[in-house]
């Protein structure tokens, strides 16, 4: 699986932080976050809300542009190790500088330098600036401003993650309109925990991609709509299995979504939290559905089509 060239569209930067990296930062800053690790040193949580709390506690030790630059370098090196040639990272100015534009510019400058160096080494990347739904629309507005003001280079998109039961997606329309006017690509987490209506709400914001979107499988009319509009699903099967949204790999709706004519792609979401890697995702799908290189190559072509980078970059990725 490592030799297959892969394009990953859905990877949270903080969520890709190895536990050892976070422990080292905590020690450096004399912060005690030992409660978020189990006896083996892995991230430990019981359910999705617990996961979000552990995610935020881990992120709390990342407090400087240097921290984020070091994290990005490690994460991109691991992506390259997994055979990825292009990755889109969800990065949250709400964690990098608290939504302040001037602070965000400092974080971005540090990460941009790392991203350009990694690109020269064969792994290209873009950032999708990501609002956190349970932090509310006001903070999302600041994230959208950061995205609109710094878009065009490494920053290529705007999105929203977090708890789907917090507020309604239309409450965040201002941020999506602002980012669209700035020429950024749009995506939203929807239909991971929530039902088909969450996905319809995401479509009303003008997104071209949906993060997860697995509940669409229960709604034939929505499936037809997603297929007709050529919306791409950023699927993260290992994440869904680890969080208990689906009972196992063979039960994951990815094959049914593909059969319904949807553009399905494969990503890892938050790999160390879910004990997965990009190669592991592909291997588990190969085992569960009998898929081989042809199927995976098609998914990667869809991922390139849906990527938020420019046309020349896409042509090189194909
Ligand atoms: N869902 C929602 N919010 C998140 C996730 C996720 O899978 N990962 C990090 N933030
Ligand atoms: Zn996600």
UniProtKB/TrEMBL annotation:
Its cofactor is Zn(2+). One of its GO terms (molecular function) is deaminase activity. PANTHER family: ADENINE DEAMINASE. SUPFAM superfamilies: Metallo-dependent hydrolases (SSF51556). Keywords: Hydrolase, Metal-binding, Zinc. It comes from Paracoccus halophilus. Residues 6-318 form the Adenosine deaminase domain. This is Adenosine deaminase. It comes from the Bacteria. Belongs to the metallo-dependent hydrolases superfamily. Adenosine and AMP deaminases family. It holds the Pfam family A_deaminase.
């Amino acid at each position: 699986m490592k030799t297959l060239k892969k394009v990953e569209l859905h990877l949270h930067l903080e969520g890709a932080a190895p536990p050892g990296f976070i422990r080292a930062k905590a020690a450096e800053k004399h912060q005690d976050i030992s409660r978020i690790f189990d006896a083996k040193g892995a991230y430990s949580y019981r359910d999705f809300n617990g996961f979000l709390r552990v995610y935020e506690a881990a992120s709390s030790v990342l407090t400087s542009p240097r921290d984020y630059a070091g994290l990005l370098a490690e994460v991109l090196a691991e992506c390259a190790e997994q055979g990825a040639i292009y990755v889109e990272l969800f990065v949250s100015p709400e964690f990098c500088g608290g939504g302040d534009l001037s602070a965000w510019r400092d974080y971005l400058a540090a990460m941009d330098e790392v991203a350009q160096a990694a690109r020269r080494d064969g792994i290209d990347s873009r950032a999708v600036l990501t609002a956190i739904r349970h932090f509310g629309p006001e903070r999302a507005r600041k994230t959208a401003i950061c995205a609109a003001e710094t878009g065009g280079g490494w920053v290529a998109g705007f999105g929203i993650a977090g708890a789907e039961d917090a507020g309604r997606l239309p409450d965040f329309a201002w941020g999506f309109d602002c980012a669209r006017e700035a020429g950024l690509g749009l995506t939203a987490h929807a239909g991971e925990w929530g039902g088909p209506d969450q996905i319809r709400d995401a479509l009303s914001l003008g997104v071209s991609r949906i993060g997860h979107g697995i509940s669409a499988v229960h709604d034939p009319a929505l499936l037809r709509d997603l297929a007709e509009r050529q919306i791409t699903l950023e699927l993260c099967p290992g994440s869904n299995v680890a969080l208990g949204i689906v009972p196992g790999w063979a039960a994951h709706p990815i094959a049914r979504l593909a059969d319904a004519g949807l553009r399905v792609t494969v990503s890892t979401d938050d790999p160390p939290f879910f004990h997965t890697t990009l190669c592991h995702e592909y291997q588990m799908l190969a085992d569960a559905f009998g898929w081989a290189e042809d199927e995976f190559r098609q998914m990667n072509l869809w991922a390139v089509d849906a990527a938020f980078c420019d046309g020349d970059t896409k042509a090189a990725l194909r």
